[in-house]
Specification:
The protein has 14 helices and 16 strands. The protein has 387 residues and is α/β, with parallel strands linked by helices. The chain starts with a strand and ends with a strand.
Length: 387
């Protein structure tokens, strides 16, 4: 039996995919698998029982990644599972900002008791005149799962789209519309576009990439959208630019006290993935990742250990070893199997920074002797018998 704990409510569409060997426990300390969405895990005690954590979403700032890695706990996330939900909100926000929809609706709410509202609105509506997005130039910075969907959708709406991503993957490049023009630098996007939307991870290179200096490069009246990470943008610099009129509107999923009180800011309470469909998709992906890891030892979409896949196990046994990425450790692992007379028929080793993972198919079912030998070795974090 594999005991799992849900630190947040997880969609039943996903949990129903767990087979009969999985049993839910309300006690996190005894769980071998934890499913989480937004619950903060940094202060939790991580027991030796815990093998894996699956985040039903993309961001993992609520999970102590290094602490988990040091204990041999693999942390998964679900990149792309909520991409369509975020894409739809970005497109909706772009149109809402262009047409002053929120402010216009606010006027109706304020005047809902006016018996002559039908006449009054004809005089008031000029204050909310907007602009159409068709024919305008949209710059998409970051062409991952979400950025590609936004770029493609914008082309269907008649926009002229340019994209920038120095790390564009082959798969995302294949999914990108041929109508999207690729440029090499963010500066080209800043200088040329009427609309700019950011979809990058938060790295040293992307932190506050929207700031007073880059805003100065932009067209007057630019509309900026940020539904990726709050710190990609300097909130105070954006607020200053909204107040001066340099930026016509800023749409974001990450309000700050100042932005929330600045005219022209269209802010939402982190709604990007808040759809039933996104929650279902994230849960399904998280469960499938856990099942493949627990059942086969394969790692896909981990954020603290490398991807590693030996498929289904068709040999007598399979052993998984999570360890530090240091010299000579592989030879030490191989020697340990030789010492107990177990032949390795297939082996894969992958590394990611200071951590690594070895998956070995062997001609004998897992025995206590080899587990002890491997576990006693320096720099080995966790040993698990898959079969």
């Amino acid at each position: 039996m594999v005991k799992y704990n849900c630190l947040n409510p997880i969609s039943n569409i996903g949990l129903e995919r767990l087979t009969g060997e999985y049993v839910k426990t309300e006690n996190f300390e005894e769980a071998e698998v934890a499913f989480v969405r937004s619950a903060a895990m940094h202060e939790l005690e991580l027991s030796d029982n815990l093998l894996a954590v699956a985040r039903a979403g993309a961001g993992v700032n609520n999970i102590p990644l290094d602490k988990c890695a040091d204990k041999g706990i693999v942390v998964f996330n679900t990149p792309g599972a909520n991409a369509n939900g975020v894409k739809e909100l970005v497109i909706a926000a772009m149109i809402a900002a262009s047409r002053n929809i929120v402010a216009a609706n606010g006027w109706v709410e304020e005047n809902k008791d006016d018996e002559n509202i039908g006449k009054t609105m004809e005089k008031a509506k000029s204050k909310f005149a907007g602009r159409e997005i068709k024919g305008k130039k949209l710059g998409v910075i970051g062409l991952g799962a979400i950025g590609v969907l936004v770029a493609n959708a914008a082309t269907h709406l008649g926009m002229d789209v340019i994209g920038c991503d120095p790390f564009l993957s082959v798969q995302n490049a294949l999914n990108l519309s041929r109508k999207v023009t690729l440029v090499k630098t963010r500066e080209e996007v800043f200088k040329e576009c009427d609309y700019i939307t950011v979809h990058t991870p938060l790295l040293d290179d992307t932190r506050e990439m929207i700031n007073k200096d880059t805003i100065a490069m932009m067209k007057d009246g630019v509309i900026i959208l940020n539904f990726a990470r709050d710190l990609l943008v300097s909130a105070n610099d954006v607020a200053d630019a909204l107040e001066s009129g340099k930026i016509a509107a800023y749409a974001t999923d990450f309000p700050t006290p100042r932005l929330a009180n600045t005219k022209g800011c269209l802010a939402f309470p982190h709604l990007g993935a808040s759809t039933a469909e996104s929650e279902d998709n994230c849960a399904v992906m998280a469960v499938d990742e856990i099942r493949d890891y627990i059942g086969n030892g394969n790692i896909k979409n981990s954020v603290n250990f490398p991807a590693c896949d030996l498929g289904e196990c068709h040999t007598a046994g399979r052993i998984a070893v999570l360890h530090k990425n240091v010299p000579n450790i592989i030879s030490g692992l191989s020697a340990a199997f030789g010492e107990v007379g177990i032949n390795i028929s297939k082996m894969i080793n992958q590394s990611r920074g200071e951590y690594a993972y070895s998956l070995l198919d062997v001609d004998a079912a897992g025995c206590e002797e080899i587990v002890k030998k491997l576990s006693d070795k320096e720099n080995v974090l966790k040993v698990r018998v898959i079969k």
